[in-house]
Amino acid sequence: MSAVPDVSPAIVAANSAPSLLLVVADRFKPFRVDVRILFARELVARGYRLDWIMQSDDVCAEDYVTRWGGGDAWIGKTDVGTSRLARIRKHVYAIANEFRIFRLLKTRRYDCIVVKDKFIAPLLALLAGRLNRTPMIYWLSFPIPEESLLRARDGTARYPVLYWVRGLFFHFLLYRVILRGAHHVLVQSEQMKRDVMALGLSADKLTPVLMGVDLSSIPYQGLAPQKSRTDDRPKTLLYLGTLIKVRRLDFLIRVLAIVRREIANVQLVLVGDGDDPSDRSLLETEAARCNVTDAVRFTGFLPSESAWRLVAEADVCLSPIYPTPILNAGSPTKLIEYMAMGKPVVANDHPEQRQVLGESDAGFCVAWDEIEFATAVVRILKDPEIAAEMGLRGRRYVERYRDYRSIAALVDDTFRAQLPGFSARNSLASPS
User: The pTM is what?
Assistant: First the structure.
């Protein structure tokens, strides 16, 4: 681990490569595919030079710099303690690291600063950018202020008053200051774009960047038949993702109970876990109440290879998203992952799920209703030919629209359209 070096303008010569400084809420090393694959791999493959400001996810007592994601990454120290004082120190350390924006803009040339899901850093970026004539693009992937306010209202926040004050403050900062000051805004979905427009931003300032998958990492087996099913092997419904209470996954337990009325030999596999033991215990209690404990399997968190193996063995994959304004603004990754594996899907009515399944015909999109959900599941289980056709259509849709190579082309085009100097300079640098 090395100390952060002083950077001289003489050392960092101007060049024609597209150059971005990214300040992201993701901890180092980031696991989210939109950061790790879309930007750090796909944009770098398109010739971008990316520098990063992040905070360490592991125990770290001093700042350091390392090479990562197409450039230099300035990693801030952290405090991993759980006390209130430790959490305050962690936030202070993060903000101190973000002040590095000012020095970097004086010593390095960037076409743009990109800030993702943060609230103090974009204020620093706006000021530093104005001093150095560098625009800021804000990347909003989740409605954080709205979530804070919702948790204060529904009683799930540990400190409701604190969450309420924080939600109001962040809401003002985000929608009245940050997004209005940003040169352009990347949002998570078409629904989020509509939500932000309703708060006063114009459509031409917003570009949806939907979640995708890295197809090179998906162990899709093509049309090869699954292992032959023995009479005693149950048909499998699979859910992949978090089990936190806000997801209301007791819904799936009741769906399973209804499905078993028509197909007795069926099981529900829940791949993932909650934030605390009570998340799973709530589902176990519901399974006991519905008399389906023997048909519900909890795997906990698994290595990706093991999780993909279970998806490959599933007969139907499930994507329930409890209908709230916050979750409606999301771009669900699990739906795209199921489709990339060639699996038929049952999902509930959600803006993006409705659009994707309507365009791809890769499954059924029904209301948030246990009987409708179970009816769709039974229909697929009873017709393997329909299931196979849905799976193939889903895979083809992902190959065409949701591989990160395709999404990177959209992001690249957006940067070139929104930053005329960037586009002109790089066009002149390109061979004729």
Answer: 0.86
